[in-house]
Amino acid sequence: MGSISGDSAAGECDDSNAHEEKIFVSVRLRPLNEKELLRNEISDWECINTTTMIFKNSLQERTMLPTAYAFDRIFGCDCPTKQVYDEAAKKVALSVLSGINSSIFAYGQTSSGKTYTMSGVTECAVDDIYDYIDKHREREFVLKFSAMEIYNESVRDLLSTDSTPLRLLDDPERGTIIEKLAEVTLRDSDHLRELLTVCEAQRQIGETTLNEMSSRSHQILRLIVESSAREYLGAANSSALTASVNFIDLAGSECASQTSSAGTRLKEGCHINRSLLTLGTVIRKLSKGRNGHVPYRDSKLTRILQNCLGGNARTAVICTMSPAHSHVEKSRNTLLFASCAKQVSTNARVNVVVSEKALVKQLQKELARLENELRNLSSLAASCDSASALKEKEYLIEKMDKEIRELTQQRDLARSRAEDLLHTGGEYQNPKPWGDYHEKRSWTDEYSASEASEIIDITRSDVASRTSHFSDRCEGLNSNKLEEPFLENSEMQFLSDDTSPRLYIDKYFGPDPCKGWEKIAQETDKNFEDNFKEVQCIEIDFANRSTIADTLPPTPKGDQDSGQSPCSSDEETSDAGSANVPRSKSCTDLPMTMQKSPSSEFTEENESISPYEFEKVSPERQDDNQGKLSKIEPTANDEDLSRKYLGSSITTDLMNEKEENIKILVEDCIANQQTCETGLDEVIKPKSQMQFVDNLDLEAEKTSKEPEKTTDDGSKTGQDIQKSTSDWSTEFEPEKTTDDGSKTDQDIQKSSSDWSTEFEPEKTTDDGSKTDQDIQKSSSDWSTEFEPEKTTDDGSKTDQDIQKSASDWSTEFERQKREIIELWDACCTPLVHRTYFLLLFKGDPSDAVYMEVELRRLSFLKNTLSSGQVSVKSSRALNREREMLIKQMIKKYSKKDKEALFQKWGISLKSKNRRHQLCHRLWKDAKNMDHINESAAIVAKLVGFKDGNHAPKEMFGLSFSLKPMNLKSYSWRHSLPLMI
Ligand SMILES: Nc1ncnc2c1ncn2[C@@H]1O[C@H](COP(=O)(O)OP(=O)(O)OP(=O)(O)O)[C@@H](O)[C@H]1O
């Protein structure tokens, strides 16, 4: 440690970083005092240089103790205190001016000169401090002074006259503080010197053998120095340095025997020795690198000096010793302490006190920094959240990709199956997988999703086969290119085709193919009810319709009675009081629906419609249509309705209605066929829809008008088709209009006349009302289509005529029915469709229109099939329908009934697959009406037609949707698939 000048100390103020340094240890030998000289004691110790001293009498005492001791500084007996201060204490003492806490100890045995040395050091320090202050006017210094003593382990304020011991408090920042210790701000150096005098006076001093003025306490004088640059006083960035320097004059260790102490002195000596022992322990511990427990708290001395010993204070220890041989043991102990202290390190640092303004500003900056860090942390946290969310979404995307891949595979598999089934030709020769599949399971089992998918696949292929005839028209096209759109189109066709198996599934067994057949079948009645309710709004009550039951074989009573048909509404029940069993609404409303819809509504909405609409059709065509539709009118036995249609107003309204029916029928035929064709047209080849429509119309017309012209192989030629188109066009001959497009009065008159002659002019009474005969005649007008009426001279029909007309219709009805049945067989019409129609036909005149439509449809279809233009592979669907019926038979027939049925149908009860045998015999013999009726009865029961009267009208396409629709554009259009 070099000398410390005032200037250098000020310059160190900037060096605020704490650094480790050793305690500065020096030894001062005092000269032999008078008593020692009187005892002729010699000095055992000799300072050989400034840092080394030796024990001179080692050989004489034959001691093994060290002879030489080296310390930071060795002061001999003639060394003045000022030199001791300058070389051993000044730097440490003046550190306080640089803001570094410092402490200067005086340690040694009693009467060794501690007080003598420390008093001189303190005075020198005060002088130097004030001298420094005087030389550094640019800074403002504030010096405070406090003094205490530890006497018998009691802390006492030396600046206070109150001898009450002070308490020691532990402060987290400042360490141990002395409560209520007076801290006097010094005015100047003299003031300090006065206080030092007070302290000296206040200190406990006692006379001992060794020292007449022995200090009996540890004294700590504390000088606090605060300084700040005058230039920045009051400024926001001003700062101050503050530190304290402790001048510690320890009580001297002593031996009771040497000091001859007793009583108070002995007690004092004990406390002194105990506290010095603790101090020695602390030093020893600290000298060993602070390992283990440092017993600061074992005494108040070490507790107070904790910050100085091994803390952040710069420390100097001046060990004083007597060179007299009589004190050699104590001298060695002092040297041992000094040696330990020499090993202790401290961390001196500058204590900077920031002004309040500067502190506020500094705190504000710190706050801003922390806020910024917080924002960064928030941003980081947010980014972490975003990363987490992104990761989660990536996981979802990956999961969805996986699902898409699986679904794609399923779709490809389904498509592959559909293609395979298509390539098999559609014939139900190989029941696999359908047949085998269902053989393994009961219909009562619920379908799994995969099974449902299989059903859909097979049904899809079936639809594809139903529409595959269009592919025959795609000459020169790659079939692969047709597959996808073809299937899609087939699906559309399938979904809108009431004759497809899917219709049966959706309409009668629920829309979900996953549901079991049985469960769905049980819901059939409910579905019927729902559909029935929908159609009720367009029904007209027919109270006196005859029953259809006479056309059916008897069914088990239980079946007839089982379940209340939804058709039997309360209103209907009230009508059931008639002698004849009333035909259910589900059947009776059908003809009326066709009559009313859309024309009836149209008529109702346009009561005053002019016959001009009718005139759009050529008279020739009118004749034809009127002849057919006139059969509708008498079916309405309701008198009011009959009067409405047969009354004087019939000529225009009825003509319009009938013509509208025909027009809508044809238009819907065209539209429906166009729907089937549209998808293909888009992908196959450009082709006018009208051209295709013409072809359809051609076929329909050819069926009813002239024998087909076919090639050798039975197919039609292109010319035939072209001609048919022309024929159909002339069927609806363009209107004859005036130059401006309006009809002439003559045209109108002629049209009215044509219609009037078609239906024989009504004969009315003078008041215009119809006679009973008129009404009777009108009711039988439908029969005029089949043979000219025979009238009496006055134009009225005879009873025989009426009887004959009824007989003629009955004959014609039977003929048409047989023809239809054979066509069904030829066209592979679904059995449920046949059954319903057969139940519907009962010989009423109202059947005529349906039979006409059905005949036209079947004829067209048959001719189309036979022409080779199309290839409808409906037999496969038919077989599958039979398979469905087979499954349904499990529920609908008891074991006993089934056995009876098998026997009736000639199926051995010992044979296998009896249900299969039976269902594949149904509707097989188109020429055997008994067989047909039996088949219809069985199918009706299996499907859920409770009896013939309860056949659902939906079968005729009148209610495919539960959604309310415009009747005019709905009923006929959706009935058309049956006609194609
Ligand atoms: N270096 C010295 N030169 C001349 N006289 C000295 C020196 N050191 C001490 N003395 C004298 O020795 C006597 C004892 O000194 P001092 O009281 O300072 O001892 P001490 O260590 O403080 O004793 P105690 O522990 O009992 O208080 C005093 O009379 C003092 O004047």
TrEMBL record:
TM ranges: none
Biased composition annotated in UniProt, kind: Basic and acidic residues: 613-626, 699-715, 733-748, 760-775, 787-802
Cellular compartment(s): Cytoplasm, Cytoskeleton, Phragmoplast; Nucleus
Region of interest (Disordered), residue spans: 548-645, 694-810
Superkingdom in the source lineage: Eukaryota
Official protein name in the record: Kinesin-like protein
GO terms, biological process: cell plate assembly
Signal sequence extent: none
Biased composition (Polar residues): 575-587, 716-729
SUPFAM superfamilies on file: P-loop containing nucleoside triphosphate hydrolases (SSF52540)
Domain Kinesin motor: 22-344
Gene3D superfamilies assigned: Kinesin motor domain
GO cellular component: microtubule; nucleus; phragmoplast
Coiled-coil region: 353-424
Keyword list, A-Z: ATP-binding, Coiled coil, Cytoplasm, Cytoskeleton, Microtubule, Motor protein, Nucleotide-binding, Nucleus
Residues that hold ATP according to the record: 108-115
Organism: Forsythia ovata
Similarity-based family: Belongs to the TRAFAC class myosin-kinesin ATPase superfamily. Kinesin family. KIN-7 subfamily.
Pfam family, one: DUF3490
